[in-house]
């Protein structure tokens, strides 16, 4: 899956590793600045996301062997196996007003999209195109986008196809 995406969109190992390093650095900066402090709850001794690696470097990433012989996908541009949980409260405008809530975001569209099982990791691309078409929005009208970073080429292919600003991802 991830290797196919990297090949189809011409995404090289160095690009994936640079993206992965930036992702780690951004996550660490957000943790250090307390940006998610209001949104996270400790579980035992775990108080913050333990996934971002503070000691990783491009040099360390370059030393990793590909997952598949002759491939470009390594552990550096793949998410680790980890556990977590999330909850999201969605409320109508009426409920927001009745309970004195302050919305953090607005949901403009909900739908379910699929992709060919062989290329399933590229599903965010047609899903985004569909949502933008249904809402009449442009990618530039969206302040922040969260794309599952299971593998770096997933997000990099999405960025190429949508033309989104990488700083908003």
TrEMBL record:
Its EC number is 2.3.1.9. Keywords: Acyltransferase, Transferase. Gene3D superfamilies: 3.40.47.10. Residues 102-169 form the Thiolase C-terminal domain. Residues 2-93 form the Thiolase N-terminal domain. Belongs to the thiolase-like superfamily. Thiolase family. This is Acetyl-CoA C-acetyltransferase. It comes from Streptomyces sp. SID7499.
């Amino acid at each position: 899956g991830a290797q196919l995406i990297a090949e189809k969109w011409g995404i090289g190992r160095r690009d994936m590793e640079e993206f992965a390093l930036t992702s780690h650095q951004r996550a660490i900066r957000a943790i250090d600045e307390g940006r998610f402090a209001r949104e996270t709850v400790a579980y035992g001794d775990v108080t913050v996301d333990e996934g971002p690696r503070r000691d990783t470097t491009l040099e360390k990433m370059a030393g990793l062997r590909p997952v598949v012989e002759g491939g470009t996908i390594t552990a550096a541009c793949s998410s680790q196996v980890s556990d977590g949980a999330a909850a999201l409260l969605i409320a109508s405008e009426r409920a927001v007003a009745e309970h004195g809530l302050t919305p953090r975001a607005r949901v403009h569209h909900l739908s379910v999209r699929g992709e060919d099982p062989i290329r399933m990791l590229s599903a965010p691309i047609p899903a985004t195109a569909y949502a933008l078409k249904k809402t009449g929005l442009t990618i530039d009208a969206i302040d922040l986008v969260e794309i599952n970073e299971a593998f770096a080429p997933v997000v990099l292919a999405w960025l190429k196809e949508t033309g989104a600003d990488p700083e908003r991802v």
